[in-house]
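I had to read the description of the data format several times before I understood it. For illustration, here is how one protein appears when written out as sequence plus structure tokens:
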Amino acid sequence: PKSIRPYRAGELMRLYRAARGTTAEAAVFLMGFLGLTINEARALDAADLIEGELHIRFLMKRITGERSPKLKTEYRARTIPLPDAMIDALLAVRVPGRALIRSGSGERASEAGISSAVARAQRRAGLPRLTNHQLRHSFSSWLDNAGCPEVIRLGLMGQSRREVRHRYSHAYEDVARDWLKRFWEAALAEADLAEASDRPTAPEHAIPR
């Protein structure tokens, strides 16, 4: 299979900024910065954000289009504790009584509609095309490369390993929230640095003697 380089944190932030105001905004946030699958992200409603925590309890079924509580595995049901900046990002797109990812008409976005919106945002950001699943992989790769403990990464992504049974402890929540905060801040810093280096500098004017 063709080798794919996942986005770095700063590239994810560039994509997120390019997606602002479109269907892709919430999608990039949920898949790229929280590691959700597209059908976990599609199933989220405004009511799933409760007191600074995002509750993953439903899945959109690809064939039937049903919002179902039957997740792929028992480990997929999870609660993601969000740092303040990430709560603010979700509140910016949250509309009470609606899905978090909405089409232009305000309805729950389709998988095809999300993929198209993300692809357009990638072109605006000048980034190579990555699929929705590869956005999730970018999140996982950053955590791995930054030295995040495996139990935290697995718990955030809803992956099954024996040690993840402890993921709902208070200690887990504090550490998981801290790693998400680090990721968000690293993404902001890298994106701002890249954008600053791309800006043309003002020409120097000779000072008359």
Observations:
- Residues 52 and 84 are 8 Å apart (CA to CA).
- Confidence is low (pLDDT under 50) at residues 201-209.
- The beta strands are 49-50, 53-56, 59-60, 67-68, 78-81.
